[in-house]
Amino acid sequence: MVRIGIISDAHGNAPGLALALSFLERQEVGQIIFLGDAVGYMEQADEVCGMLERSRAICLMGNHEGMTCGRLPVPDGVDDLLRLPPSWESLPGVWRQQVEDNGPRLELDLEGCRLLCVHGSPEKPFTRYVNSEAAGQLDFEADVLLMGHTHRPFVVRNRGRLIVNPGSCGLPRDRGDLLSLAVVDLDGMDAQVYRLPFQPPAFLVKGMHPRAAALFERKEPDVFGHIWSSGI
């Protein structure tokens, strides 16, 4: 059985990413794919990028990396909210080179299964937000489409193909106390989203803009995914 771990949108949350990577290690996945946005909102970008580098994850460039390295413009008046790293060159070099090479869209072949990995969407891989309803209407050439950016997880089946958004392992937008990731079984063409209970440490919240920190308090009534309660 070929199982891969899918994570996205860590946004400088090193404790959250550590929790997600520990969970995936126990799931014995053969490969980890990170769909972008390691940086921004929280101030541990260097630690997060280093952890991804050491995990040997396949990493994409998200829009926050795009703004940090100059591929995307930074909108006026949002510096304090985004809290991007001071420079692209300050981040770990091996991770940085991989992200530059892969960009926001990457095609992979794993064990004969064609994967299309994007941060946003197939046609606008940096910026477009795609919800679960719109995902079913997407046109793409792959067996599995992996996409992030929304911070909201879903699994959709489209004419025999699989579309997976793992949500955010750093700053979920549906339930702030439940980090999100996915495990994909390529043999069975199936996926499971897992939610990991998380209480952000005070030092992490202290370094955030209040609007971003408020997402940790958000508790929408409907939670997608299996809430993991067995300890990690």
Structural description of this entry:
- Helix 1 packs parallel to helix 2.
- The mean pLDDT is 96.
- The chain is 25% helix and 24% strand.
- With 232 residues, the chain is α/β, with parallel strands linked by helices.
- It has a single domain, classed as Purple Acid Phosphatase, chain A, domain 2 (4-Layer Sandwich), CATH 3.60.21.10.
- The protein has helices at 14-26, 45-55, 63-69, 79-82, 93-102, 132-135, 202-206, 210-213, and strands spanning 3-7, 31-34, 58-59, 105-110, 113-118, 144-147, 154-158, 161-165, 178-185, 190-197, 226-227.
- The strands form 2 sheets. It has a 6-stranded mixed beta sheet with strand order 3-2-1-9-10-11. A 5-stranded mixed beta sheet has the order 4-5-6-8-7, with no helix packed on it.
- The longest helix has 13 residues, at 14-26.
- The radius of gyration is 16 Å and the shape is globular.
- The protein starts with a strand and ends in a 5-residue tail after the last strand.
- The chain has 8 helices and 11 strands.
